[in-house]
Amino acid sequence: MAVAMISVQVGASLAKGLFPAVGAMGATTLRVVIAALILVALLRPWRRRVARADWPVLLAYGASLGLMNLCFYSALRTIPLGVAVAIEFAGPLTVAVVFSRRLSHFLWIGLAAAALLALAPIWRERHPLNPAGVALALAAGACWGAYIVFGEKSGRAAGSSATAIGMVVAALVVLAPGVIQAGPALLAAPILLTASGVALLSSVLPYSFEMFALTRIPVRVFGTLMSVEPAVAALIGWLLLHEALSPRQALAIAAIMAASLGATLTMGAGKADPPPLLD
Questions:
Q1: Is 162 helix (H, G, I), strand (E, B) or coil?
Q2: In whole angstroms, how far apart are CA 213 and each of 3, 44, 208, 235?
Q3: What does the alpha-carbon distance between residue 236 and residue 242 come to, in Å, rounded to a whole number?
Q4: 3-class DSSP state for residue 218?
Q5: How much is the pTM?
Q6: Which of 146, 148, 159 is nearest to 50 (CA)?
Q7: Which of 10, 81, 172, 196 is deepest in the core (most CB within 10 A)?
């Protein structure tokens, strides 16, 4: 989980450099399509038979994956990386609420929710957040929540092949918007080289590791652990993109990290419980 979070944020910072050439949608298309090709070659999903009854959840998993990437990269055009990931956490936050059973979990989740409110574009600041960027990050969060839920079921249905199948579906979802926005620029050699690095860092490595985790821990634990990602994203954004945060934004991200750590420490024996809504 830790390697996946660091890898995906380094990849996102690299992808942001592609925006001037191919736009956010073009960068998304390159990332997802190249990742799909790599995963299909490595995992060879055709070797495992998938039951017809399992295809709806695999398609939902892939669609949520593609839309999550499309909305998230579009949000990055106007808001910092760390803030975008923090707002996107609304999805995993919802998953954590649904699957929580202890009062202490709701207290930690409440702290994270207050932090998200502090990031809303309703405060007077020197550099307020772009409302469209915030809305796109929230949409990415909704897709992220669906990705967690459908990813767990997809892993049970197809094992490691679910990652490759889901990425192929995601590639089909994002292909048209990227081609319409960027056109022939998508095939330029320097762009393809950078995009290949983005695909490896942001899709192939993290999604493979996350699928491994999703099949071994309950959905609510996965969603809670992922809440550390805003802090990781803020650090990567500061180091690689020189994105400074306001005191309010930095405090909100720190609160999300505290909520994540607190919820993780109070999971206790519940870690082994099956995810109830998926049975």
A1: helix
A2: 12, 20, 9, 24
A3: 9
A4: coil
A5: 0.83
A6: 159
A7: 81
